[in-house]
Amino acid sequence: MAVTKVVRYLRLVTVNQQRVARKRTYLMCPPEHFTVEYAINPWMDPQTPVDPELAVKQWDRLRETLTGLGHEVFVLDPEPGLPDMVYAANGAFTVDGTGYGARFKHEQRAAEAAAHQAFYRERGWRFVAPLRTNEGEGDFAYLPAAHGGLILAGYGFRTELPAHAEAQEALGRPVVSLNLVDPRFYHLDTALAALDDGNVGYFPGAFSAASQQVLAQLFPDAVLADDTDALAFGLNLVSDGLNVVLNSEATRLAGRLRAVGYQPVPVELAELKKGGGSVKCCVAELRP
């Protein structure tokens, strides 16, 4: 019995040694104009009231959590008439100092793209304006240590498949296309998350059978979420390789992450969930 405990302890130590936090740089946009006035995803209900003050408090807490973990957070100025600007991840996708811009599917969000483009151009980034419909980091994830540097890209509801080829040309990284088949998981970042530079967590039921096979081959050590935590936006998370900031409702997923050496950091984002997003939707990673 004592030997078994020692083996378990050594395994835990080994796992924890593999988890290293890396300082990240993020972009967020405060929900000063956040409301749910229309429904462009299954989670939005204009009849459900939003508490604007609480939304700002929850967003502030998320930002403070990220800066408290040692990360840098830039803030994009919100604009009146664009209530979904708080979901900053959708405005672009960046790799190695290049920003691949968004082209939103729904007209209600179309004007957000220009604000993001201006942010990158003002800071001297190389910026590629898209011709194809895509919704930025909402449908793209980058894993620099996976297979030499790999982009995972979702399609099926928002981003169109030809945008994957466009992103590959713009960013110079191979793109793996993943077919989303459940409308509740309308963006890739609602069903899959980069946990570190080489591994992911995901909910298999959000993907087609073929895409599930691809993910299983690419990431045999992935952390899998069940439907309860996936529907609680548990995978809509931000990770620095060790600390995983995720929705506080995703308790089982937090346990699974802890069991393999990550440190879950739960946050409450109930108001912003009313618009169909959680932690990751509010946070774009800047990769200079």
From TrEMBL:
One GO molecular function term of this record is: hydrolase activity
Source superkingdom: Bacteria
- Tell me the NCBIfam families matching this sequence: DiMArgaseDdahMtb
Protein name listed in UniProt: N-Dimethylarginine dimethylaminohydrolase
- Protein keywords: Hydrolase
